[in-house]
Amino acid sequence: MKFPEKTVADLNIGEKGIINTFKDPVMSLKLLEMGCLPGTEVTLDFIAPLGCPVGIRVAGYHLSLRKREAATIVLKPNQA
Fold it and tell me: Which InterPro entries does the record associate with it (predicted)?
């Protein structure tokens, strides 16, 4: 049974996930340079009032991303 992909843009405030892969190869290079490496835990810290940007905590620092950028970061499925 295949579950739908969950991205950073799908997280609720305070929710965590583990980065699995990226949807956009061009954007992935920029995200990798900013510390968004596969296997790294990411936490959604805030969502701006109009929904963009979103703030995440990754690799020990805070990073603000556009919602469309956050939607390119695919998380690992829950291991429940």
Answer: Fe-transptr_FeoA-like, FeoA, FeoA_core_dom, Transcriptional_repressor_C
